[in-house]
Amino acid sequence: MPPKKKAARKSKFDHRFRAIYDKTVKWQEAAAVKLLTLPKGVKVKIFAHDPAMKRIDMKVKFPKGYVEPVHTHKSWHSILVTKGRMCVAGKDLRPGDYVFGWDLPHGPYEYPDGCEVFVVFMGDGSQHIWDEEKHLKHKLKWKAKTGSGKKAVKAGDAARKRALAKKATAKKKTVRKKTARKR
Fold first, then answer.
1. Rounded to an integer, what is the distance from CA 46 to the centroid of its chain?
2. Residues 95 and 118: beta-carbon distance below 8 Å
3. Mean of the pLDDT values across residues 86-109?
4. How far apart are CA 137 and CA 82, in angstroms?
5. How far is the C-alpha of 63 from the C-alpha of 128, rounded, in Å?
6. 96 — pLDDT class (breaks 50, 70, 90)
7. Which CATH superfamily is domain 23-178 in?
């Protein structure tokens, strides 16, 4: 006699087969900020999120001139470049090229002409852990190849310089206040 079937366990996660058209998934900026904790400008399309497996499959769009800081994660990621250029680790990556990252510091990633990637995160979090001041001091190594990319790179450099100057001014004010209180 065959063994009795166990009652199917109800899962709160959807593990059914799916086939999804890219155009039906909307780009989201707020989700990118929450999931990736990167400087503003990045957008994501989430295709699958399975909290039980601690896995997220998504596309990420980086605007022209964007710099992703040196960072770590509490997870690993596999990245496939699908559009544009990703410049990292001395390599100018194009569609079809691949990147793997884990809990050791990696980056910065430069996107002088913009880029889209497909990424799979697996582990305890897709959030990037990075140092803002170090990021603001970053000097680009890669040159844009398009006119709009060159403008975006120039604007990104200027924005980082302004933010760094603002931080320096805020630090000086804090030091002055502390010195004044001690007197």
1. 13
2. no
3. 95
4. 29
5. 18
6. very high
7. Jelly Rolls (2.60.120.10)
Query: What pLDDT score does 152 carry?
Result: 94
- For residue 112, the Cα-to-chain-centroid distance in whole angstroms is 15
- Can you spell out the DSSP letters for 92-159? EE-TT-EEEE-SS-B--EEETT-EEEEEEEEES----B--HHHHHT----S--SSHHHHHHHHHHHHH
Quickly count: other Cβ atoms within 10 Å of residue 85's Cβ.
Answer: 23
Phi-psi region of 113 (alpha: psi -120 to 50; beta: other; left: phi over 0): alpha
DSSP bridge pairs for 111? 66
Beta bridge partners of 5: none
Q: CA of 157: how far to CAs of 32, 42, 166, in Å?
A: 22, 17, 14
Contacts of 7 (CB under 8 A, 6+ apart): none
Q: What are the extents of the domains in the chain? A: 23-178
From CA 131, how far away is CA 167, in angstroms rounded? 13
For the stretch 34-69, pLDDT in tens is: 999 999 999 999 999 999 899 999 999 999 999 999
pLDDT in tens, 134-165: 999 999 999 999 999 999 999 999 999 999 99
Give the C-alpha separation, 108 to 126, whole Å: 16
